[in-house]
Amino acid sequence: MTAWTLLIVAMLTGAGFLVGLARARSLRLGGGPVFHSLPAYHGLMLAAATVSASVLAAALAAIALGSASIVMPAIATIAGTAAMAALYPRIAAPFRARNLFERFVLLTLAACSGVAILATIGIVFSVMAESLVFFGEVPVFEFLFGTQWSPTANPPSFGFIPLLTGTLLITAIAMLVAGPLGLLSAIYMAEYAGPGLRGFLKPVLEMLAGIPTVVLGFFAALTVAPLIRGSGQALGFSVASESALAAGLVMGMMIVPLISSLADDIINAVPQSLRDGSYALGATHSETVKRVVLPAALPGIASAFMLAISRAIGETMIVVMAAGLAANLTFNPLAAVTTITVQIATLLVGDQEFDSAKTLSAFALGFVLFLFTLTLNFVALRVVQKYREAYD
Amino acid sequence: MTDPFRKGDPKLIAARYRAERRFRAYGAAALGLTALFLAILIADIAVKAWPAFFEYRAVLKIAVDPARVDAKDPVKGDFEGLVKDAFRAAFPAVTARGDKKKLAGLLSVGAADDLRRLVVADPALVGSEVTAPVLLSADADLYLKGQQTKTARRPGAGTIRIAGMGEGYVLTGDIDGLSPGELVRVNGGALRITAVVAGGLEAEALVRPETLNTATAGQWDVLSFSIAESGRRISDREIVWLESLKDRGAIEESIAWRFFTSGDSREPELAGLKGALVGSLLAVAVALGLSLPLGVAAAIYLEEFAPKNRLTDLIEVNINNLAAVPSIIFGLLGLAVFLNFFGLPRSAALAGGLVLALLVLPTIIIASRAALKAVPPSIAEAALGVGASHQQAVFHHMLPLALPGILTGTILAVARALGETAPLLMIGMVAFIVDIPHNLTDAATVLPVQIFLWSDLPEIAFQSRTAAAIVVLLTVLFCLNAVAIYLRKRFERRW
To answer: How far apart, in whole angstroms, are the C-alpha atoms of residue A245 and residue A170?
Structure first.
């Protein structure tokens, strides 16, 4: 019935437009006072009234009776026709059809921008609601400070600490790779590379940024992890086949473009006069970069790093494919660890019953993850706003 | 630390210039490393993917028996039986039950599909002999691609004499250079050398030779393998059968079109991407159909009409935050709201599309705002000056000029949506789905999720399929990005 209703609404709306247009045109042709609005606006106004009335009626019917009921298309037809009939006699020279229609458009636009808020509210409430149910079964304290994570064991234990250390370990490895690489790349691109080289390097970095993480995960699991395991064993280390190092390294490469593009913009925003002043004092290019440009760009770079960390913490596919499932409380990069996102993904893939603590714990983890990344993003924005040097 | 600006010390100046060069080299090295990583990544995946675009088939002459295939209703014919019989007929020497079973195991489960298609398309073929390709199993396919073992074949040098000894055989003559594990193919049979004994070689028969005649140079050859039988999924006997088919010219290699035209399957040689491609198309269509109008409308409102107040500030902060929320959280939202609250079907492209729509909405809003902002105010002012209303100025004059920028942002958003995996795992798009989805509520999967699913499977044959699926995905994404870059270059305007 939904498809029928949509079809009817579309047809009524089209009809409304044509009827309004024809009516206004014929009245204008008949002579008389000058019309306030163009004929098209009369048509659009009628169409707008029709579509809002019929959609509203259909939505109410669907809520009251379900979308399978025949009432829905019927009531949509009646409401749409009624709205059309009510407005039709008002089509006349003094009718301010354009102003009315523009108000309708403005309301629609405002409602569309409200969807963004709706999405955030949806995230917060849906995740929080399930988390609260979970914390009704498992005490918050036990969740936050427990050192044992085994949701499928009997009895299950939901200690968040091993997941946190695993996430932080992989994030730290990723940042150790991405921080220097990204920053140095940005400095080279902004300070040294000519336009030709820049024109080649930027697309390369954009290409890397555009590679889906599932592809990077495949590469990490099938190429990087065996490589690390092999070379580690050749050197006499015992390396887990799903080591944190492999996932961290590839995740670091994923983040390089993010850091480099953000830092590039920030370095470019440092005014040329600062560099010129430094050169005038006899400093070399690299001394200028290290002692003048970077300190000036520091807040921006710090916020870029924070955004990168938030990205690393929330990254899912690379760790799902290349990191382990066992929640080991360790900081050894050669051991297998698990992360918050891995656990969310594995707990919710497959069939779930919504009353079990196991499924609900994924929402609690999601809530923690959301708070984590939100805080990091918020602080990153604040850092830029607060410590940004105003040079001009 | 010494004063770096001490006057006129040539050593110090040299050191400073060295530091300059070093610093520059670090930057170049960082970029080089990143580019190298990208190159290795793409090369690695391309090399892994290459074999999956080809498949090996046996070409058999098959008599389509009217008793087994009804010309009036050929779809229900016993094509599996026909293909199996024809394949067995190619090896009359194989009679033992176990061997027959193994022989049939060289064929794919879907071996009869091509024959069925031929006959269904032309029922007049019933009763005649048809030359049809017969798909081999994944293991046979992998062997022929050289992925199970490297097989070296060398012609026998000199004469070789065969003598029966109990169940086995003893080889004498010019047997220098032969070692245990190698296969000697002679007199229509195949003998595996098991041990070196005084004056000869002990061998066991994989395929019994028809005679024990002495063979001269050119009448026999030797197969040796880089990986012993215990280390591969195909036995020496199966290799002998495949090699004899190859010698007869009954094996052909062709492009594996079925990789693009069939749905998922448990059998690697039959698994294809069509279901995932259609699923991706449906999900992205839903995502784009929702997020493009919503995003552009929101951008127009925020950029042009919104009053500066707390509420619009809140909306802006919200959009920026939403852009940075991990994608897996959108999956949780989809699960809790779309599936559990609104009761949308699990695994459907509709739910996936909705989640993706929310995911790319901030991207589209931000890109559209930037594009609107780039239109110079003089355009709107000119429109207002000749009596247009604010909305007329925006919709008739600014929006068309901002459209290329919006389009570029939209294409990048589509690329993002196409590559997204994690949130779709949450809403059940990871199910094993053979059928190709026909509408928005059918169970479906998408390309990146298919990659994830295949990468998890233990069969080696799926590894190259996974890489091939990645190649397809990356090709689509690079094309999208190229179009976006082209649009940006073509329509970029400096005012």
So the answer is: 7
